[in-house]
Write a structure and sequence with these properties.
Strand 5 and strand 6 form a beta hairpin. The termini are far apart. The chain has a single domain (2-117), classed as Transcription Regulator spoIIAA, CATH 3.30.750.24. Helices cover 33% and strands 27% of the residues. It is an alpha/beta fold.
Length: 118
Amino acid sequence: MPNDEHGGVRIEDDGARWVLWGEVDAAVQARYEDRVVSALGDVSGPVTVDLSDVTFMDSGGLRLLYRAVHPTAGNPVLVDVPARIRDLLEISGVAALFTFVDEAGTTDGSDATEKAGA
């Protein structure tokens, strides 16, 4: 897919799992936002988002992640978040909306204020 060469979103498990990869920017958001919103209609619990292969994220990528937030479904679970993406979430003030889990399944319950004080 030529348009997807720099980044994209793969939706799995009937919308309950998203795999983001590459450069997740406004162009990726424009291509995938309708798909992720549509997929959310079939999901009853929190969405799991694998970010292990994300190399870059801007406000378009943040918007896609924010789409996974639903007040009654629980915090979306972000898996293997690269440090620079975690920093972006913290600086943007939205880190507390997510649960962070590493590949081994270890939950990082710290929020942005705890990290800032470290």
